[in-house]
Amino acid sequence: MTVDRRNLLKGCILGASAAVFANGPASARTQNGTSFVLIHGSWHGAWCWANVTPHLMGAGYGVVAIDLPGHGLGATFPPSYFERPLNMDDFSTEESVFADIPLSAFTASIVDGVRTAKAGGAKRVILVSHSMGGVPMTFAAEEVADEIDGLIYISACMMPPGKPWGDYFEVPTQADEKVGPLLIGDASQIGCARLDPLSADPTYREAFKAALAADVDDDVLQAALNMMIPDAPFQMYFEVPLLTTTGFGALKRSFVKCTEDYAIRLATQDLAIADLDAAFPDNPTRTVEVASSHEVMLSKPKELAEAMIGLA
User: Fold this and answer.
1) Quick one: which of 31, 35, 114, 293 has the fewest CB in 10 Å?
2) Domains of the chain, start order
3) Which segments within 4-114 are labelled E, that is strand?
């Protein structure tokens, strides 16, 4: 029997994402009155929280892990992605679906997650974001500040009013970040930050692990690579947040710093925290450190869950 690798991989990716996301509404039922809405980062989906969720639920918390637009069951792949060997000319120039998805769609999905948590009985809702997920979480938090009770950024994009996250791309503290060299194509032209999670090139795979997942078990990382998508939103990094003292600025805000992160360097995390604290000096960010790479959900799920519970 001949197996179509493209369909097989699509099935694996979609099936795994659906399995985790399907647990969302059921997991939303809280025992202690508090639920977390989990917002993934670039190239990921709701599936990335799978090893964190049991620790949160075991402690009585409700959990809603969402798929942002263009991810999970809503993912659309560049046509050339499943053609191996990869045609780099095509793959580096094909426009991404993310070129046409506005930031408002991402914030709307987070608001839907809040409503799902409320429907599950939550009296308190904490938004939690990783990496890129911090951008739409920041905008959503201003929109529904009266419906949520706190924010937790996990090595995530946290920016002050008037400053887009894109401004942090060029700060000196990012000089030795390792994700940039992995990117394929011109993000401003194809409308996304594009990687090749399915690459068989040992040099690329080694660099990928060093950049994002140096402390992740090889088998776990391979499973994650089979579920990751190649494209991630890009334009949202240049959206300017308008944050108010009575909205976003009034919310309890926390940051989990990943000390061995080569995507968002520790010094850059500290810079973002300092910038936001300067904007809202009467409501400083609470911080906790986890000794991990950027993929802390995969490498240190128990420690991450404990940090989240401590910050809730």
Assistant:
1) 31
2) 5-311 (3.40.50.1820)
3) 34-39, 62-66
